[in-house]
Amino acid sequence: MSKQFQRLTLIAIVVALGVIVLGAWVRLSHAGLGCPDWPGCYGQLTWPAVPVEIEAANEAFPERPVEGAKAWKEMVHRYLAGTLVLLVVALCWQAWRNPLCRPARGLATAILGLIIFQALLGMWTVTLKLLPVIVMAHLLGGLATFALLLWMRLRVRAGPTYRPGPQVRRMRRWVLLGLTVLTLQIALGGWTSANYAAMACPDLPTCMNRWWPDTDFREGFVLLREIGVDYEGGILDQPARIAIHLTHRIGAVVTLLTLLLVAFRAAQASPLKNTAMLLIALVIIQFMLGLQNVWLGLPLANAVAHNGVAALLVAVMVTLLSRTTTGKNR
Question: Domain spans of the chain?
Fold first, then answer.
């Protein structure tokens, strides 16, 4: 495999992680609609920064006056996401141009298709005014892009002749279970954030000083809502938000126990021991960050770190999956 292709893949992985973390920062600092149009910002390639530009932007978009601190955050995120698109295009071009990269052609093409769809989700996030299901899908799409880029690099490095031992191969179903539970929990986290339910329960271990307050699960988990409504700040009542929050809390405990079980079992296989130890450390850190989000009132740095560690957990699980998969399953 071309060394240039491998280096470019590594750069794309790092940029993809940066896009995920930066996207979380934008969302959690309430800058998701910092630019009311797409792909520009108030009709510009950058953002309104001087008085004459701000005045013109306010006249063109009277329903959303310029907030410079939000606009530049949103545009920086778009620039980095655009850089990732270009990197994936370059990877796909290399995969089809260089005979040495033939094994990566199918996956590189799939990633290109995914990131084009991810760009559309980014556009719809703005044009549909933070519709929760689109916001959640955008988060999952970013993590899927990151995971597939990492998978491509790991499988290319392993080669078609890679054969893990029987003890390692037996761990694959456990890793798949852990990855499934983790993905569902991340989706729940995205749904919690998109519906502004992260602080629906401001106390621990109870919620609103009750073990089980009034909840509305039916309303809390309606995926397809009205188009054209501005969802910034959320539209759900408190019982619906509490239902979402409690589901995410329960999911956090289930995810913690599942990933610890996977890690302890993986640690019994010598080739997986170091990765299993990393998984244990990350899942405990992630659980504590979640608790601190409630205890500290959702501080921005802590909440962004919670998203970043979620991405690192995905990376560890993808690494375990790769190491338990034979070369023929590439």
Answer: 1-159, 163-330
